[in-house]
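Appendix B. Chain record.
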Amino acid sequence: MESIGEIPLRTVKRRKKISKEDLIINAVIYFLLALFAVIILFPIISTLLYSLNEPLEAGYYGISLIPRHWSLENYADLFKEYVGFRRGVLTTLARTLIGTVCALASNALLSFILSRKKFLFRSGLSLFWVFTMYAQGGFVPTYLLYKFLCLHESFWVYIIPNLVGVMYVLAMRTYMKNIPDSLEEAAQLEGAGYLRIFWSVISPVCKPVYAATALFIATFHWNSVFDVLIYNRFKPEYTTLQFELWKFFSELTTSMGTSTRSPTPQPVKAAASLLTMLPMLILYPFLQKYFVTGLSFSGVKD
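Structure tokens predicted for this chain:
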């Protein structure tokens, strides 16, 4: 007779029986998950199908969920007829890339400083930044400050005010505080300074929280529209995708105050909506594992 160790694992799995209660529970769980997926994906799929309607047929027959004739004309019109959309693509890409890199570097350096036990003012500075989460200067003083600093009507109004985020600093600081001190001590014995320790010892370990923070920052810059509306509304060279999308759905008849055009057709709006959300939808799956790991470890307390 065979011992337990000699029985193949696949045979054990095959002999395991599933009860009727487990089958019912699994069926209910799969049904709820499928229903949730349909609810989440339906707006995206319907927007995609709307964007594939021909503009003339959509205006004559109305928009249909299943296009009568499939067409990519709406996407071509976005870049051909709407100059603001082309400018918005370039500005949004530049803002997202530059803003994410600069904000990640500044938040990481500040978090590293606040996580050092030998830093004398780490508790006071941490309390100061937490206080700013609850008490802010207000919109009018902020606007006047940006104007005094010559950030008004410039590209850098997107970058400089968003270099430091309190939530990002707290998350990365907590993550760095849980890194063993022996790693830093070993580097100091080898003659490494603090910048060397940050770059060669701390940063490689912090890749998960860096990736999670970068995803948050990139999503903020990609979707931001308020600062464009307030500071660069009449600067067409600094328009963004989300601001152009807001104009499309607001039925504005001016293109950044320079030319007049008719209201945007609904299929073109659907194409613009899909293109503005697509990059973030593509980026998230690649950073999901870092996202979960970074948030899990950054929530661990000493």
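Further analysis of this model is presented in Appendix C.
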